[in-house]
Amino acid sequence: MEYMYTASAQSAGQSCSTARTPALLDAPEDVVAAATVVVQDRVWQGQPRRTTVEDDIEDEDELVQSTAHPFNDDGLSDGEELLMRETPGGVGEDDFEAISVWDQLTESFVRAGLISGNDLTEQDLEILRPFALKVDTHMSGKTFAKLPFAFPQSRMDSWKTIQSRAAQLSGFEPEVYDCCIGSCMAYTGVYEHESICPFCQEPRRDAHGRARQRFVYLPVIPRLKAQHANRETATKLQYRAQGHLHEPGIIKDVMDGAHYRSLLGKKVSVGEQTLSHHFFEDARDTAFGLSSDGFAPFKRRSKTAWPLILINYNLPPEIRMHLDNIMGLGIIPGPKKPADFDSFLWPLMQELLRLAIGVHAYDALTDAFFALRAYLILVFGDIPAISMIMRMKGHNGACPCRMCSIRGISIPNSRNNTLYVPLHRANHPDVRNDPTAVRVYDSGSLPLRTHEQFLVHAHEVQFARTGAEAERLAKDYGIKGIPLLSTLSSLSFPGSFPYDFMHLIWENVAKNLMSLWTGQYKGLDCGSGDYVIESSVWDAIGAASAEAGDYIPYVFGPRPPNVASDKASWTADTRSFWMQYIGPVLLERRFKHRRYYDHFVSLVKLIKQCLKFELTVPEIDDIRVGLQRWVVKYEELYYQYSPERLPTCPLTIHALLHIADSILFAGPVWASWAFPMERYCGALQPAIRSRRFPYASLNRYVVDQARLAQIKLIYGPRARTQLALTPVRTLNGRHVHGSHTRTQLDRGIIDKIVGSLCTRFDTIPPNVIRRSLPQEVDEWGKVRILNDGDTMRAAAMDSPRDDKRDATFVRYEVLVDANARYRNRPVVLQPSTFFGQLQHIFEIQLSAMPRNGYPHPPPPVILAAIQTCTIQRSNTELDIHHYSRMGGTDYVDIQTVQCVVGRIKDRSQYAVIDRSGSLSRALFVGESEDQE
Ligand SMILES: [Zn+2]
Ligand SMILES: [Zn+2]
Description:
The protein is of the alpha+beta class. It is built from 32 helices and 22 strands. The relative contact order is 0.11. One zinc ion binds next to loops.
């Protein structure tokens, strides 16, 4: 495998001398072996790992799994779906077709000399298109087998043949490891030769000697190598070193974070050996982020599987999170939380050791071999998954926070043992009775954990003399032992494990606030406060939220649910949208006291601030102070310093206090949030074809999906367009398309058009323009802004669509005379922003005006007729603009139309919401294109 691209270089004209000595660049086996031993000893010696009580406790704050959309296809349904364990033989013969096929491959592939779009033959594409079709659409094997009969002319191959060719072209094979039937551990590393699970004593194999459960791991190295061997992808991978420019004092990507910057100039070490090279000294050195998250294959089950994905920070941010660029590593199967998560990370660890040393690879850009290196610098996901990876006790430990050692306290005299982390605990009996206990933590100087201290604590626990001692220390520190990933010199504990903004804000804080406002928060009334919104009012807010879906274009995101009645269909996406845009409009003047609304809006502003593309250090300080104030105020409003009300202070409120530090250390919140994982899980969900063998069907899909993604990456644009299975579009300028008619213009409209054209052709008298206007003009149905911009529809041509999601309201900018009100002052044109409904899109072809400098007809002009919204008041910080009536119609050049906007009907008014400044747009464009 290590020499895969030798031949490719030769075919690319590489000189023989380099080709003869490729092994020189490869990680020396003795160094790898020595590092492996050191890592194993450090992590698995000392106190044995145990399954502890908290492993079995449901994670209170994360019970709702955002990605778990109920799945009702193929007879799998809501009812009584119990998660079946993979029974013996459950991993059937053809579950790993794609793997067994690998064995049939010959060296011819290795020698074939990849990797460019031209190497993909027409015949290959013919095979890959149905492969893409099945993978993308989750078509069942049964349906797929019928295709050749439905299209007899198609000469389509069988799935097996297709899959085997796809396997070959993707250039990597999955590694299959046995694991415990109860998902305690994988038989890797120190467990490699065990025959029963050391945690639950279940045998490894069934009566036929077959593994009872498997963990399928997709290796990184061959994929990363192949990506560098493709010119186009290799160019994109240069972003980290070439595209991104670090400006001191500004955070706009991971590479601006203190962690990454501290690695620069530092020597890489593996095991006990310090190597001669420095982190990121080569432009091709890869920075990876690892993400994991609990994933529920079936609804009403909490976490039952943990997908592992890698984010490649060498890619530009706008494509980094696209599904094809997310590198799936495999899924840790459920049903239980792994007792030894590290055993599942072991295959990755071995690759990371190798990649830290350097592996032999071919670079298409320089046409030369080089030592390909990669480093894991960030790890993120939901709290339970990260607790397992960091070997922390998590929510339920005495020190539940991974960033600081704030002590948790529980409700006095209660059977609920959950620990909560308010700043203020002076009224708690335990605290009153303990003179050493902290009474009020200062939000600005929390007892932060450091890397050294974390590892000292982990070491103390792991090498405690007795099991009881280890348990006591573990409780005290909140750390259960030495985590595998702490042996990587590229990671810092706990800083490299930032709290995930998505879970924190949308899954927890937002959800909890809504529960509080509706009086449904963990059985608490509003105490001495008055924050509950009456149910009739809340119902009205709910209805208005759902109705807003009609006025909000598709590109803004999924249709918001009715907040009052439809709790099941919330996702992080819809909650984020509701919080940022709908909530601030619909909650205004709904609380009995304004302080609750103001407190909420101050959070929304802080969130928007966090989501800015670029943050300066002073702005991050503002975020820090803002969130500190917010949490302190939250305790006053909702917790009210009452020990009985401790459930209002879960870890996820406290974690807000660490966001600003994490931005400085690890980069912007979006660089390590869980939306890509959510997207990945969304793609996995329909792959579960069998309720009895969910993990087998997931594994199959994960392999196929990764292969398809890899093929698109390594064979260039031709493969990508062909395998997208959508019509090819070429865009130039602002693109008008959709339905189209010829329209006769009436006099009033002609006057307006002439007026508008006069500003464009300002040297030509109006009557000349009027004469050269055609009788009829082309009228178009929609316009799309280039480079993944919005699509906007003209109301006059818009036929009612099923989804009814209005995409006719736009923001546009017109030059306005700043002195219009003063007759005698000179005209001073300034750009001014307006909102309105796009009525018509006219394409106007003037005839030649020979006396005015146009001997030939000028290029056609596209004009937009927009009826303006008469804005009455605006909240500029939140970008929300209220209007209750429409004004006149402007005829403007289509170039002035900037984006589509949404609206929310709020009582007798509409609020225009403009999301164009928001980050989500920039990061999520490009994948929802088919929808418009
Ligand atoms: Zn087990
Ligand atoms: Zn903390």
